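protein under study:
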Amino acid sequence: MEFKAFKMDGLGNDFVIIDNRQKIINLTKDQIIKICDRNFIGCDQLIFIESSKSTDANLKFFNSDGGESGACGNGTRCIAKLISNETKNETVILTTLNGDLKSQILENNIVTTEIGNAKIEWNEIPLSKKSDTKNLNIKIIDVNDKEYFGGTAVNVGNPHVVFFVNKIENFNIEKIGPQVENYNIFPEKCNVTIAKIVDKNLIKVKVWERGAGLTKACGTAACATAFAGKLNNLTENRTDIEFQTGKLSIFIDDKDSIHMKGPVSEIKKIEIKL
């Protein structure tokens, strides 16, 4: 099998994008895993663009383990830019499992996307039992063997848990991430973020994505962290989320809808041979 695709990224969070609006490409889970493997092509997520009768396109997201994901913030922003280049429209609406997401294409490859409202009820995360989602009281251990208890659960199209700590450098996300992701309280697993509040408008983060592992940036994690910060009265409505590769700007409006703004890369055309 041989077909053309695209490669894009948002702050290093990278994607292989397959335009499947003609419905000619069907991939198995093993083939998706192979494409995402960095010894082959490599990406954090694989995205299918499919036709839609009511919006610009329908999107399907797959993590590098081959499992489908309900949302991908940076991926949605990348596709919005790609579709905008095609249609010449500055507004793009894309259908995802999380609903229809509206994006605005700005200058200098900046794209803003409205992710919508976060879910914070225990059965909406979902959790396996009724719990205080503001503080799950999950134990994590830093590099000095010091115990920390916390974790705010938020669903922004996929489940997240955010730990606010004082010294982010003391926490090994590559060790903590897979442990917390697989806790029984998360029946659909979860994305894990270690976050440090710098001030009311800036949070530094490290992110572990379920099904993908350590990623350079994660759009939904940025949204979940900003919302969790506001929920815990740690931040304001406008918050920058800082990854090692750059920042995403998050704005929570008066209806609690979350808006994410940041850069996307240029579009690279690739060929895939399976």
Remarks:
- The radius of gyration is 18 Å.
